[in-house]
Amino acid sequence: MIDKLKTIVRVLNNDPKPFRRLSCKFLAWLPFDAGALFRLKLPSNGFRIHLRKSSLSLATLYDPNARKSDADFITSYLRSGNVYIDVGANIGTTAIPAALVMPHGHVVAFEPHPRIFGFLEENVKLNDLEGRVRLFNCALGESNGEISFSSGTNDDTNHVIRSRDGLCVPVHRLDDYTTEFSKIDLLKIDVEGYEKFVLKGGRKTVERASCVYFEISEEHFNEFGYTVKDLLAEFESAGFGLFIKNTDSQISRIGCDYQLTTHHTNVFAIRNVYDFLGRTCWTELESA
Question: From first to last of its 288 residues, what are the pLDDT tens digits of the chain?
Fold first, then answer.
């Protein structure tokens, strides 16, 4: 016990926001959702979210700029009247800024976990976006039916699981939700390893997409029987150029044989790099 307390003290001494860190740990430890009682609202990258017992909500309490890089990219890329599809929307930290920057655009967001979906609905309503963001409480895959979904404490990493020990949630094909759109300006996919199967059920959507923003991880992909190279090769064969971000405003081209040096990273699959750079005001390096 003494050693554990010493470790906690050492961590807090090195933390730039020790009081906020303790507050987050305490709220996560409580057996109930304190945010539901006090209805506190948090500022987050130009919008607001409810303080609830969720990983992204508590991360925002600790740092209002949490996940800022994703929001900054999305809001710099999108233009009024564009179409944005958010697969794995969680509590709305990417769907909401997309809708705010596109008063005449279309945002379609998917979140499978029923509790987190409830928080997503709350946050969309809090920002007065009910009529501008379409929300769907389902997973996406290669066919329609039902699928098992994890329900862990770290709810920003919940994912499809192969066993039947998780939540039973509906799963549908992405293509069934995008038929009205002749062009998809930005498709974001963050599904903790299930990306390949989302794409299998969304081939027609991808054909109409100008840019796909997604995460790669050998560990996550291996759990579902494929590799990073497999997925990147599919995008290359579909006519996309592949890029990773080097700095806040610089990208580099990669190939399907790209070797990860970290557990995971984000990739941009881009149809027209000149259009992409023009929208974001970023620059391109010669190679990764």
Answer: 565 555 656 656 778 888 888 888 888 989 989 888 888 899 998 999 999 999 999 999 999 988 899 999 999 999 999 999 999 999 999 999 999 999 999 999 999 999 999 999 999 999 999 999 999 999 999 999 999 999 888 888 899 998 778 899 999 999 999 999 999 999 999 999 999 999 999 999 999 999 999 999 999 999 999 999 999 999 999 999 999 999 889 999 999 999 998 889 999 999 999 999 999 999 998 754
Q: Is residue 19 in a domain?
A: no
| Euclidean distance between CA atoms 129 and 137, whole angstroms | 17
- In this structure, are residues 47 and 41 in contact, taking their beta carbons and an 8 Å threshold? no
Range(s) of the domain holding residue 99: 67-285
Residue 82 forms part of a structural domain: yes
CATH of the domain at 110: 3.40.50.150
Q: What is the distance between the alpha carbons of residues 18 and 151, in angstroms, rounded to a whole number?
A: 28
Q: At a CB cut-off of 8 Å and minimum separation 6, what does 286 contact?
A: 252, 253
Instruction: Specify if 191 maps to a domain.
Output: yes
Q: Is 33 a domain residue?
A: no
Q: Which two tokens stand for residue 26?
A: 């305490």
Domain total in the chain: 1
